[in-house]
Amino acid sequence: MTEPSSTELPATASPQVEFISLSHLNPSTELNPVPSRGIDLAYFRRYVRWLEESGYDYTLLPYGSNSADSFVIASAVGQLTERLRPIVAVRPNTAFPLVAAQQLATLDQLTEGRAVVHIISGGSDAEQARQGDYLPKDRRYDRTSEFIDLLRRAWTETSPFSHSGEFYKFDDFGPGFAPYGKTIPISIGGQSDAAFEVGGAKADIFSFWGEPLADLRSEIDRVNGIAAAAGRADRPRIWVTFRPIIAQTDKLAWEKAHDYVAKIERTFKGGNYHKRYLGTATGPQNVGSQRALEFAAQSDVYDRALWTRTAAATGGAGASTALVGSPETVAAAILDYVDQGASLVSIRGYDTLADAIDYGRYIVPLVRQELAHRAATGQRGTLQADHPGALAPGFDLATSAGSR
Predict the structure, then answer these.
(1) Structural domain count of the chain
(2) For labeling, which of 199, 213, 288, 353 is most exposed (least CB within 10 Å)?
(3) CATH number of the domain residue 191 falls in
(4) 0.90 exceeded by the pTM?
């Protein structure tokens, strides 16, 4: 990576960044799990409105076999906000593509062009089987590829069309219900070979969990190479997700991080929280979780602020790698990823609502201020140089976190 003292912008740097958060339906967290299968409506309304007021651009509405329906929640987000863009997580096994296209276009019309879809092929055989899907993992990505093609045709074809594919067949459909604009952005994620092939060739957005900078850069190059080989003139936007842990100073943030991870470990050792994501007794099936655990086994800390102990504590369940430090250090770390090409950054905390508010107050403005400086001058500002975090000479995790 470029040294933090350099003012030169790397050629890979994205000129823009938009922020994403995940919408939470109730106060339950990994730090303090609250047994509930319901929606705390007052909490949800407050959460979503804070995202809007804090300057987030998108919110992800996740999907699971025992969670609330992502389409219904996305529609609620659209009506509770004026600007926030709902990202609907959809599994192709749960919705026929023409119906999903209709639902998404309806959401897009109701929100005047704010809808985005994140397609989840499915990383756990056990979780897929809970809703009757027994297709092997690689074949699930083949289905996703056909699903994406049919979404786009349903939104753009002006005459009826028929289709006889490997997974879907129908006659004389259309024209379908149109979105508000020309189309709806399609996101895909995953770390398997099949995920890269489908996402690089067909997705508008490719999503990653937080990884060390050099590893992420090589993955971005891989996505772009596949896009080029597919004949695309554009490249997928890169979305990367973190769970920041911040405090007034780096030292206080590391102390907070160690306190958090102890609580997370207790929660996951109880065996119930997010159990559905863990795959099998031998560990997660999805490559993203396997990579997270491999990074955690090699080192606790990478680059300026990336911390993997949280991923280890969860057994690689979902997006769980943290960025630790003061707001300035974490903002500088986010900019490191922007320098690698990320233009969508998801930041969601372990203390959900409180963290979302703090990020909006203390991190988002710093990143946007730096990007405005870059746009005006063509050079980096001083934020990255002034806040090296774990890149500082003599940094020691034990010392930074205090005596434990």
Answers:
(1) 1
(2) 353
(3) 3.20.20.30
(4) yes
